Amino acid sequence: MALPQTTTHQDRLLTVNIADTPASPGEVNLTPLFLDRENGVWVLYGKFAPGTVLPKHFHTGVVHFFTTKGRWNYAEYPDDPQTAGSYLFEPAGSIHTFTVPADAPEPAEGFMVVYGANVNFEGEEFQDITDAGSLEDMFQAAAQAGLMAPPVYIRPGPGGAGLSTAQAAPRAEAAE
């Protein structure tokens, strides 16, 4: 078989680095890496302070979560802590409550790929929905309010994917 022709030309790689991308403010810091509202896919890097408890939520799609630092668990699964190096697959239709122990010596951090939406609950009552679109709106609103710098993330669009801002941060050129 012959090498296929490139079907999507790129002048440069579409890449972002969490060190160069602002995170949302607060005890839960989310850094957007890829937000695709049309296909319902969101990729984030999260940092969660000790004592964090996120709302109980129902996943409409699958989730992949790789823990890079710290420790966390689902309240419903206290005997299955996730620690640095843990990879977790969550099937669609799962329900759980993300928690970081209050006495944790450091924040829990991780990389997540989420398909679909999280339907969030306060107790047993519907609270709201988190998806790629609501996250993109949240990040843009926080930037417009001056709470964070405008985030740079990969965003699919007409003609292919691109960076979220028209003027992406310039890359450092190699010293001559």
Description:
- It is a single chain.
- It contains one helix and 14 strands; from the N terminus they run ββββββββββββαββ.
- The chain is mainly beta.
Helix-strand string: EEEEEEEEEEEEHEE
| Rough outline | globular
The neighbouring-strand order within the major sheet is: 1-2-10-4-7
Strand content: 35-45%
How far is the N terminus from the C terminus? 41 Å
Radius of gyration using CA atoms only: 18 Å
List how many beta strands DSSP finds. 14
**Low-confidence sequence ranges:** 166-176
Number of helices: 1
Structural class: mainly beta
Q: Please state the average pLDDT score.
A: 89
Which structural traits does this protein have?
single chain; 176 residues; mainly beta; 5-stranded antiparallel β-sheet; 7% helix; disordered C terminus
